[in-house]
Write a structure and sequence with these properties.
alpha/beta
């Protein structure tokens, strides 16, 4: 592999209009996919949106589909460490070599769309990556595509496909500057993934979100499969390495399923994934198939233990809804005493809301800043906000992820055997720390 060429391709993609800025149009991705001979139509699509849980649910759906004997393509965002993590075939990121091949096969078509500058904008980073993912999946070929929405739903580039199954994970407030300032407005944007072709599989929602989703389904004539009525979590018990769950699925209760993920929220994501796969294949899954799928699940940076002595746990939670679930899961699974937190955040997030949730659980908070990201909240600003909530004696300020990790691990080691470190607040922080502790 020509590493210089791969780095050039990646840099060129990342240099496009960034994915955190919404360009509300499907015209560019439609034009690209048309030039590619519409690869998004070559296999049924399961599309997943929601405020939190999209990535974990997509990973679970992917694993369950493979347990059914299907070849899968999964598109994920953002990546933790390497861009190729976004395009997975049969549960594994494509190689750098294959990524570069897909780029070279389609670079001329991307250039054509760029030259047209539809609505004044060349293809954005996320649109180009979405097109490359659909092309890679069509070339494989895969039997099913699992597409995680980047942001929102109606105008997300993944919506160039008409989903056979539209999965709506819990909706809450996030990206309010782009999607709306109320749960209803955000739910309306996310419910746009539901098409006349879709079965909508809907997680438990706030009443105002559920009303919007139900209206969308009625508008397009899409049947709904709803948590609490059609599927759900009946029981769960903490177990070594995860939890044992009892789920309500298509044929009724399914007992004694081991899920190698921590937290009640993950049990609900698992139930949602089972319902989505059953909706796609048109039949109930047997317990052996469900367990075979769960056995394949690997979910990086979702309450993931990446170091022992002292324990270091990574999570991608970055808004109050996600942080609340992560803290409950960490308390249940690990019960660190004291808990040392490592936090970096983007400037457009609800920093005060996150800090207020962390304060009762975290003994010392080590704040830092991710590198090279224009959205990153400066560490000085995060430290000032943290001191206002935690007090000066409970906040440590560090310039880099490496420095924050060093300080946190030292504090946890000094605090004794029951102490541990929880890293959260940003996907980018989780990626930086994971690269430090698990470089391969």
């Amino acid at each position: 592999m020509d590493e210089t060429e791969h780095a050039r391709i990646v840099a060129g993609l990342i240099g496009r209009w960034p994915e955190h800025r919404v360009a509300p149009s499907l015209a560019r991705i439609q034009a690209l996919c048309h030039l590619m001979a519409d690869p998004q139509t070559t296999a049924p699509v399961v599309q997943i949106t929601g405020t939190n849980g999209k990535g974990s649910t997509a990973i679970l759906i992917d694993a369950l589909l493979r347990a059914c004997g299907l070849r899968t393509g999964r598109f994920a965002s953002p990546h933790l460490v390497d861009l190729t993590e976004r395009i997975c075939i049969d549960g594994e990121p494509i190689s750098d070599e294959r990524f570069d091949e897909v780029w070279r096969d389609n670079a001329g078509l991307i250039d054509l769309v760029d030259e047209r500058a539809i609505e004044g904008i060349p293809l954005t980073f996320f649109e180009a990556m979405t097109g490359l993912a659909y092309a890679a999946f069509a070339d494989a070929p895969v039997d099913a595509m699992v597409m995680e929405v980047g942001m929102g739903g109606t105008w997300d580039a993944t919506s160039v496909a008409d989903a056979a199954v539209a999965v709506l994970a819990p909706v809450d407030l996030d990206h309010t500057q782009y999607l709306g300032t109320t749960v209803e407005a955000i739910a309306r944007e996310k419910a746009g993934i539901v098409k006349a072709t879709s079965v909508a599989v809907v997680a438990e929602q706030a009443p105002e979100a559920m009303a919007v989703i139900a209206d969308r389904c009625a508008e397009v004539g899409a049947p709904m499969v709803v948590e609490g009525t059609d599927f759900g979590v009946l029981d769960r018990q903490v177990a070594a390495g995860g939890q044992v769950v009892r789920l309500l699925a298509g044929d009724g209760p399914v007992d004694d399923l081991f899920l190698p993920l921590y937290g009640e929220h993950m049990a609900h994501n698992a139930a949602l994934a089972v319902a989505a796969v059953e909706a796609l294949i048109g039949r109930a899954l047997g317990p052996e198939t469900i367990q075979a799928g769960f056995d394949q699940v690997v979910a990086p940076a979702r309450l993931e233990v990446v170091h022992t002595g002292p324990p270091v746990v990574l999570d991608t939670a970055h808004n109050p809804h996600g942080v609340r679930a992560t803290l409950a899961g960490a308390e249940e699974a690990f019960a660190f005493a004291p808990l040392v937190g490592v936090l970096a955040m983007m400037a457009d997030k609800d920093v005060d809301g996150v800090l207020e949730l962390l304060e009762p659980f975290v003994n010392t908070l080590v704040v830092t800043q991710v590198s090279g990201n224009p959205r990153a909240l400066p560490v000085e600003d995060l430290a000032e906000a943290a001191v206002g909530v935690f007090g000066l004696d409970r906040v440590e300020q560090t310039p880099t992820s490496q420095a924050a990790l060093d300080v946190a691990m030292r504090l946890a080691t000094r605090a004794g055997d029951r102490s541990g470190v929880l890293v959260l607040g940003s996907v980018y922080l989780a990626g930086e720390v994971r690269a430090l502790l698990r470089p391969n």
